[in-house]
Amino acid sequence: MLVAVSVVLSALYARSPQTWLVTSAYALLLGGLATIYGTAWQFRHDVSPSRAIALAVGISLGLTLPPHALGYNGIGFFVGFLSAAGLLILAAHHFWMARHEAPGTLVTLAAFYFVIGLSFLPRAAMVAMDGRVIMPGPPQNWAQNASLALIIAAVPPLGALTIALNQKRLVRAHRQQALTDPLTGLHNRRALVEKVGSVKGPIALVLFDIDRFKDINDTRGHAIGDAVIILFARALLRRAQPGQMAARLGGEEFVIVSGGSLEDLTRQAEEVRRDFEKRARAELDIECTVSGGLACGDEGAETFALILAAADRAMYRAKTLGRDRLETEVAPMPGAGTSSPHA
């Protein structure tokens, strides 16, 4: 909107060169381009762009408007074209740096903004070559006409690319929601099954179950129950190592899947168990423990199901042996056949 209104004011300035028209036109133009730059900043960094926009507006308008306001429009045109080029090239840079998210769309978007930004440079060069500090009106030359034609031609594809990019982000966000447990932010069972295929080599996992969780809900209420779930999820995340997957399978069951050794995972699981018990007592004033079962095996979806079943049996054994402990079980090879009691 800002850029469109600036175009209208520029057309009026071409017919009736007045200082207020050209000053207003450049204020709106650079404000609009600074906003485009801000959207690119926000897209890349996922933070509010208000400071980036304010800085871009302050610098570009601070350099461009004083010459126009004082009547030195030749200098104003030169600086204004350079400012517009800089803002668009910076926007292209941020979209380019974020290209891993949607390579085809973002590379094309960055290319459009980069080329449009470059088109302002010949316009600045022509004004510099003209050499006049005060001009009777807007520049009239081939660079001006070519740049305006390029901008007009780029508007439809830029709009289409922006809409496509937004749709891709929405689809990705919906998929992320489908793979995330809403209470804890951990992966859910579906995400775990999909991601376990990326683990190469032997798989080790520990299956946790919060002890007597039903009693907590019945005696302390579901709000405390949710707080316990969240507290344990945080304990998992604090101890999770790079390359591991932490997930909530449902209810009070959690799992860590690792490509490391079972010995290392056992030490890690003990740290999680002790950390959770300590923090439950300190933060929620509740005595709460967790039992766990560990198992390991080879990679592959079929083998993973057997490993998870073995860990389930180990966890069930930990429950029957008094809870607040870890047990280990050897996962059978695919095709061996086994049953899995429910803990």
Describe the 3D structure:
The chain has 343 residues and is of the alpha+beta class. The protein has eleven helices and five strands, in the order H-H-H-H-H-H-H-E-H-H-E-E-H-E-H-E. Strands 2-3-1-4-5 form a five-stranded mixed β-sheet, with helices on both faces. The protein is elongated, with a radius of gyration of 31 Å. The two termini are 61 Å apart.
The total of beta strands comes to 5
Number of DSSP helical runs: 11
- The side-by-side strand order for the widest beta sheet comes to 2-3-1-4-5
- Radius of gyration, whole Å: 31 Å
User: In percent, how helical is the residue content?
Assistant: 55-70%
Content of β-strand? 5-15%
Briefly note the structural class of the backbone.
alpha+beta
Mean pLDDT: 90
Listing every helix as H and every strand as E from the N terminus to the C terminus, the arrangement reads HHHHHHHEHHEEHEHE
Instruction: List low-pLDDT spans.
Output: 336-343
Gap from first CA to last CA: 61 Å
How can the largest sheet be summarized? 5 strands, mixed
- The best one-word shape is elongated
